[in-house]
Amino acid sequence: MLEGNTEGQLSARPPRSVQLKHLTKFRQQHERRIQLEKQALTDPLMNIWNRRALLGDEDSNEIKGGNFVPHLTREIAKARVGERRTSLREGERRTEIPKPLSVLMLDLDHFKNINDDTDLGHDGGDFTLQSISTLLKQSIRKADILGRYAEGDELLIILPETNQEGAIKEAERLRKLVEKYQLKFNGKKFRVTISVGAAELKDSHKEPKDLVIEADKNLLKAKNNGRNRVFPPPPVDQSSSVET
Hints:
- The protein is α+β, with helices and mostly antiparallel strands.
- The chain has a domain at 100-231: Alpha-Beta Plaits, CATH 3.30.70.
- It has helices spanning 16-41, 51-55, 71-81, 111-116, 121-139, 164-180, 208-224, and strands at 2-4, 10-12, 83-87, 93-97, 101-108, 145-148, 155-160, 182-185, 188-191, 194-200, 230-231.
- Strands 6-7-5-10-11 form a five-stranded mixed β-sheet, with helices on both faces. Strands 1-2 form a two-stranded antiparallel sheet. The protein has a two-stranded antiparallel sheet with strand order 3-4.
- The longest helix is centred in the N-terminal third of the chain and has 26 residues, at 16-41.
- It starts with a strand and ends in a 13-residue tail after the last strand.
């Protein structure tokens, strides 16, 4: 088919095969960009979100054309906007009801001992991190967000629509789950435990990192109190921590 251009000349439309070739190349480039963005936000060892995905960093503006929003930033914004409700007693006035949001900071107790074990070593340590992260990922809600907070064994779990009490209960449930989970590497069977710090979003948390800092402080208290436990502690009838 011939078409006239702006100068009144005739030009041929590219053959369909050429159009398809360009379309295929565009799709491949788009898929490649998505793959690279995913790699930039995923921890390669545990196959969960990395710290950049959770909290962002100086390179975040280069992701998704500058439109990337870290998970915790997004969830805090959603929690503070809350849900719109209509109250008949207030003359049909629409009000904002904030939703709760909590985070859990956890790490493996005495993880260095695994790396130093002659039967396990660093490969055994990597296997342990992969196994525990998979266990946690399969055990939390679909709406919850699990990520690796640092290069070591610290993990962060974001719990949307969860208050402090619910976060503590969830932390204790996960602690017991890990405690009972048996691992096997190079023929050696072993178990690990975790310590967990919980924190709920408050008005005093001006930045996402403020919420994380509070959870991290509570994690330190859990470890200082003997490890293999949650801080703030759950009700006595729910907790059955043992020192390791």
